[in-house]
Amino acid sequence: MSFPDTRFRRFRKTPALRRMVRETRLSADNLVLPLFACGGSGIAKPVSSMPGVFQHSVDRLAETAREAYAEGVRAVLLFGIPETKDATGSSSWSQDGIVQRALRAITSEVPEMVKIADVCFCEYTDHGHCGVLDGEVVDNDATLENLARQSVSLAAAGADVIAPSDMMDGRVGAIRKALDAAGFADTPILSYAVKFASAFYGPFREAAESAPAFGDRRSYQMDPANAREAMREAAADVEEGADMLMVKPALPYLDILAGLRQRFDLPLAAYHVSGEYAMLKAAAERGWINYDRVMMESLLAIRRAGADLIMTYAARDAARLLAEGWTE
Question: Which CATH fold topology does 25-323 show?
Answer without folding.
Answer: TIM Barrel (3.20.20)
